[in-house]
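#structure-requests
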Amino acid sequence: MEILLLETGMGGRLDATNAVNPVVSVLTPIDYDHQKWLGNTLAEIASEKAGIIKPAVPVISAVQPKEAEEVIRARAAECAAPLDFVRQPFDRFPVALPGAHQQQNAALALSALHMAEIAVDETAIELGLARVSWPARFQRWDARTIIDGAHNLAGARILAQTWRHAFGNHRATVLLAILRDKDVAGICAALQPIAQRFILPSIQSERALPPEELSLTIRDKLPGLPIATAASFATAWEQAQADSALILITGSLHFAGEALAFLEGAPAALEDCLQ
């Protein structure tokens, strides 16, 4: 059996993946992001996300905020689509990815397989969860460096929770780059409890907020927290290496990709992606 998993690029209702009629539709946790296109309330955003629900096609959803859940339930009822909310994390086997949220993600994925009547052997499930690797998702690069592509407020909050679970009260030198259309102040505030200081590099993305502007936001919202800017990731990395603190590289998947390309000694890989 061949299985094709399609992820919507943004929203759902108008996404190109909506042209496909799936065997099951999956809704991950809904939070604020892309408000310019999806709406300014969780109900509006959920309405766009719920656009992937098809007539009579089963739907699996993560636990949602009340206003989002109401929209999903209404859309599923309108489509006569069987709906199930996955409320318990998966705990039968260890999950290699760090963070309690990954146990919830595992439960969502396995529930989708069950709803779609796709049989997977228990041994395969155990091995798959034990071996799964996801670059830039709380990825341990070395003994003191974590790379995480958290690029919105919800992601930053989960990152901070996972960091505290892994490292307790130890704070990080945070290498941070954020795209200008994101909740910059919210992301910085979410990271503040785990940050010892920020280093803000210039990155190879036209959408990125320049380090000088990002610095102004941090100084305004988080006064007193040490900040430095850097001309490139290479310079920021050199500065961070001079510290004894743990290092966290975060704020954008674009930035995480650039960091990994540099650290892996393959900057041309990033250049290919930017073409």
